[in-house]
Amino acid sequence: MGGLRRIINLLVNSLTYRHLTHPTHEFYRGLDDDNFSLSLGILIERTLLFSQGDKMSNFEELKASLPRRWLDYYQNNQAWIKCLMNSRGSWRKTPDGGKRPSADIIIAAATALEPKLSVWMYPFCQLSSDGDKLVEVLGLNFDSEKKELEKSEKELLISNSHTEYLNGFREKQLSVEKNKVIIFEELLKILADKWLDYYQNNQPWIKSLTDSKDSWRKTPDGGKRPSADIIIGAITVLESQLSVWMYPFCQLSSDGDKLLEVLGLNFDPEKKQLEKKERELSNSLYPNEDPVLQKIRQELQRENLNKPS
What we know:
mainly alpha; two-stranded antiparallel ribbon; 4 strands
């Protein structure tokens, strides 16, 4: 341990390392020497920091792009977000005197909007499970409506004409309306696969955060899943047309577990991924097999796997 501590101390005193860790400096405030060393050890061991130097050095660039992306997302999804937050009374106060949605929704949406962020989220969640602190470090701890109003005022000032601005706004609204026409049953066919792909790419930080908060939820398949807000936040980015359905859903119920049931997402993602791989393998081995016989054979295979040796 002494050798590791010496290495860590050298790294802390290195200007290069300080530069690399600068984006996460807020996590280190208030930590004693042992916890500080442990946190840095986790960061180095789990993320291979120096082998990913090029990826890690662009956090400020990623962070700079997040507010704009989040505001665009919020503008298209604010109806159901407001309904859900109002029903639960779970708005969070912001430093600008306003309010924002729960941290889980914001973090999930941000990582879906910017997939490269997942490289950073795992060490971040190792260092802190405080969602409010994570939102702060991502630069998203603000009132979205206040920020949107500020942006609109600035655009009006720099715009060549008021008419040009209004036309652009109308075109954007028309574009959103066109994307709102879809049958719900068609959405259900694609939501599970989109969530599974997202989970596969983001599971290190999701597992770390959910473990730290002890917020896993049991699923009907005997497994577990992350909080409803994480799943809803991600899936409404991955499938933008879902927003037209989310508003009436949230008017009917603010129960996240019930919403996931309706969306067909109340399952253990790791179990579902395994089933998907088994199905793909089975289809490649038995391409012309009757679906009913295929299901029976797969169930028998699972029973054999679960039998004690």
